[in-house]
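Quick note —
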Amino acid sequence: MPFRPSLRWDQEDFIRALDGATGHETLLEERAYDIIGIGSTSGTLRWISPSVSHFLGWAPSELVGAATTQLIHPDDLTALLEGRSQALTGDAATLELRIRSRSGRFRHFRCFGGPLTNAGGEVVGTVGGWRCIDEEVEGREALARTAARLRHLLDSMSDPYVALEAVYDPDGTLTDFVVSHSNPAADQFVAGPTSSISGVTASEAVDATRLTWFVPLAEGVLTTKESLSFRNLGGADIGAEPGRFFDVTIDPIDDISVGVRWSDTTDFVRNAAEAAQREHDRALELERDRIASDLHD
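Predicted structure written out below.
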């Protein structure tokens, strides 16, 4: 478990350091942070908890008197300054910042800041708590990488694919789906090569009258968490021209989303029909030959 400073010890040290200034008690008593510090109205560190050594390698004496901007990643400076301004006006600010360790490595922290006031109610600085969120950020980044790989895989598919999020009316009845993601093959299938259908509803992308069969089936997939597959659906059923055929699969994604992929099986259906017709014609020909042979005999 990460080191947690003694909140009682920090509070007593705060009181000594601030000479009776108030505003930090709630932060200390109700919130558990890895590092706690106070800064002047100009952003100079006036005090920082000894736990900074554990998380960032600095001795407190190395940081007291330094500007907080010297510790923050350059890309986070704007967020820091905006958060400080917000805190000085009396509003608490919560933001994520990358803070430089003594080794030069930046670590991720979720930072809370609020105004520090004296006994007369005058704002004399800011008081803040920092919680290290390296593991949380690493987890988010890993999920983002996984999502990017999955998106690349879906976008490279030759078959159309869409992710659909359920739309409910005020009574809680599922009425439609909105396209949360569509791959290029789906965009071209529905809207053409230069348009995207992401963000539109399914009933807008496909004539709503052709969608009546889909909504209850997709709702069933959401309920059962089991996929449904359909072989050789007619094109008119999915918004394509009549005479074409498609295999369609509806997969559950989460509690409110399904994935739909489809592939054109028109050639397969036509070839199978032509093969069946040839077989039928051949059977008729053989039967005629048999009857003719019987009559001859």
